[in-house]
Amino acid sequence: MNIRLDGPGLTIGDVVDVARQGSRVEMTGSAKQRMVASRAIVDGLVDGEPTYGITTGFGALATVAIPADKRSELQVALVRSHAAGAGARVETEVVRAMMLLRARTLAMGFSGARPETAEALVALLNAGISPVVYEHGSLGASGDLAPLAHVALALIGEGEVEHDGSVVPAAQALAAASLEPVELVEKEGLALTNGTDGILGMLCLAAANITNLLSAADVIAALSVEGLLGTDRAFAADLVALRPQPGQAKSAANLRRMLAGSPLIASHRHDDPRVQDAYSLRCTPQVHGAGRDTLDHLVRTVGHELEAAIDNPMVLEDGRVESGGNFHGAPLGYVADFAAIALADLGSISERRTDRLLDSNRSHGLPAFLAEDAGVDSGLMLAHYTAAAMCGENRLLAAPASVDTFATSGMQEDHVSMAWGAARKLRKVIANVSRILAIELMVAARAIDLRAPIEPAPATAAVINTLRTVVAGPGPDRALSPEIAAAEMLVADGSVVESATTVTGALD
């Protein structure tokens, strides 16, 4: 599928398709026309009054006038000096999202870059060339300077890139793809580096992951309700509607669909001395639903950013070139931190259900740790330890990054967003929650198997059948790590939700 890059109109799905599926990108004629008009304004300013980043230095050096014969050199020097990242390499999918989003801003025609510069970014994407970008270096204002500088470095034929599975010099990869290095002109080094595209790219990818995880959490929680001989009465539509939170209603509806026709639920409906379930079961829609509402807020914010022009200075249609602050990552940092908090709690309530399933004092007739021969066998005891360890890490990762700031560039850039760090933390939380849910899935499925001959609901049975293709049922102790990894893949790739929907139809 080709993604037409016109500046505005790009969606989260488009970003995910390019980043993860390798969809090709092509620039529209209208985008090129806007860029030509914007470039003409910049060309007309070259010999006029001082303009930030065009005829002056950068940051605290903005008062330094740059001679005409040094202005192209200024742009190259900016890219080289700002390519100061350190640490581990950033994931290829994040780099590809970042490249697409920087090309998107350039295509809006407010940056003064030439069409061929944006097309060079697109050409790298289509050739499968991903600049090597490092994890540390962005403060989220002025945007993702160091990460984007490493991308720009590859455009001019310097630095390293990933191509055909290997890390090679950028010049070598460009030559192999019959691409020429870009010769930067006034404003273009600045336009290539002054944006929040890495942060936004990570949030686009996170939105897709979180959407899947929230549905998977509802599906897996339904298995735990059955495994613990819980009730579905707390999820009744009229009861839930008394608190009109939209996410809560959707989560409760999913639980009702998953548990419909469950013999396990029916088996104790009228003779159970318990009058209510523990919070980790009964309050599932409230916690999962709050996560859904948090995701909605993230998606709205990302949607606004996908329509935004992020650069500094901005080249306006009336010919003005104005410095502003659209590069500041605060809107993105806040939602990244908020999402990490919500997901950490999603993992926490999952871990609580897992613990209850494994505790013979609270599991209503199940063997301790669901072991075949408790004492000789430890069952799934240590799987819970792993989930608890990741919950502990998530509590640290949920501490907000966006409340912090530093003063940089000689106090000119004296308030930064730290949004890149917030987005990086969010990726780790997402990975941990995928594994925490996978462990709950394994534990709940085994609990349901041990309730035989009473059968689960058709929807939960379908999920267990999918799990059993990669994870065996109850039996003597065996190494659990491979099974956790296999279950995690089913959660992360959407297989858990897909298997449920073969019975329930689409879930909310």
Overall description:
The protein has 508 residues and is mostly helical. It folds into two domains: 2-195, Fumarase C, Chain B, domain 1; 202-504, Up-down Bundle (Fumarase C, Chain A, domain 2). 55% of the residues lie in helices and 6% in strands. The chain contains 20 helices and nine strands. The chain has helices at residues 12-21, 29-45, 71-82, 92-107, 115-127, 145-155, 170-176, 188-193, 197-227, 237-240, 246-259, 263-266, 279-282, 284-305, 330-358, 381-397, 419-450, 458-467, 481-492, 495-504; strands at residues 2-5, 24-27, 86-89, 130-131, 134-136, 160-163, 166-169, 314-315, 321-322. The strands form four sheets. The chain has a three-stranded antiparallel β-sheet. It has a two-stranded parallel ribbon with strand order 1-2. A hairpin with a 2-residue loop joins strand 6 and strand 7 (166-169). Helix 3 (71-82) packs across helix 6 (145-155), helix 4 (92-107) crosses helix 9 (197-227) and helix 15 (330-358) packs antiparallel against helix 16 (381-397). The longest helix has 32 residues, at 419-450. The mean pLDDT is 95.
